[in-house]
Structure formats: structure tokens, C-alpha cells
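Fig. S4 source data, part A: sequence.
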Amino acid sequence: MPSSIEKIVGQPRTVLGSTACRRLRRQGLVPCNVYGHKEGAVAITIESELVNALVYGGSKVIDLEVDGKLDTALVKSIQWNTFSTNVIHIDFVRVDANEKVHVQVPVVLRGTAPGVVAGGGLEQPHHTIEIECLAVEVPDEIQVRVGALQIGQYIHVSDLKDLPKGVTVISPPETVLAHIVDLKAIGAALDAEDAAAESGVAASGGGESNSDG
């Protein structure tokens, strides 16, 4: 489902730089930037409680008010601290609610793959994909069903079905989203490599030769 639009009020910030940003965070504020739509970039702060509600609520598009000016803004990127526990910066891009945007959204695997039950390993090479849709219809995630995936099989972008209404995937169709690797075959290959390495050592005399003189 598309994220609901929420209104958030930000305050302009005039002192920039990493030292100033650290001071703001200690005051319970999150430094942010707003740019796009042929307007200049604006540095702002938003209260951390509002940022947490925004991020954990899953909203992608908000009504952002700064100095009495209201813009529809898309959450473009979120920067977390080292331990991924606190948001330390957000970039917003101004959008028209009726225009299409390109944005990265999470890919979430759903279901139990038969290949995993059979002893295979599920791998997810890409955790996000790029999509195009109306700014107000950005989905929280793209779900990928793996309930029919067998060992050695892949799910590519081109295999995606039942996308949310109005969503077009921009990522290359050959992009691999999930596949099942044969863990037994990988283990056998590693054992063969180890055996070959041991055989090579034995053939060379088992170690370095010592010479006098």
C-alpha cells in the first residue's frame, strides 16, 4: 500500500558543518537537506521524535513546511549512525504529487522455498530495486514470492508479477533478486579443491627443500 502523506515542520539552519550537526543531534534535532524542483537547496532541522515517526511509520512522501512554505517532499535518502540505531541525516527532494519519480525501494522475500527445505541456501544479491511511480504512490516495499524456488533456480526482475498499481521497475530485467545455491555441490567443490591442494603439496615433496653450500 502507498505510504500516507504526513505533515512535518522543519526549521532552517544557518550553521553548517559536522561540528554543528553533532551539536544539533545532542539537542534532539536531525539535520536535513531539501532540494529539487528547480529551487535551491535548503538546510533544515527536524525534531528527532518526528523523524522517528516518519522513518518507522514507513512514509515516503510528506508535506514539509519550512518558514511557512509548504512543499510535497520525497524521502530520498536516510543516513544512520554506525550501529543503525539512530537517524543522523535525511535528504528530501521536492516533488509534485502528480508527477512520476524514480526511487529505490526495499525488496522483501516472502515464503519458504522448496529448495531450502531440500538443503539449498537462499541468497538475495539485491535488497533494493529502482522503480518509477507517482510520488504519492511509492510503496513501502516490493514483495518477491519464493515459494516455488528450487535449487539452482533464480528470480530476476523480469520475473516480477503483481506489482503495485502504477509501479514500473527501472532496474535491469536481468538483475537477480533471489536464487537457491546447492550447498552440497559447493561443499564437494571445496573438498575437491582442498584435496587437489594437498595432492600438489605431496607431489612437491611435502615442503621446502634444504640445500647446503
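Fig. S4 source data, part B ends here. Helices lie at 18-26, 48-57, 114-117, 183-203.
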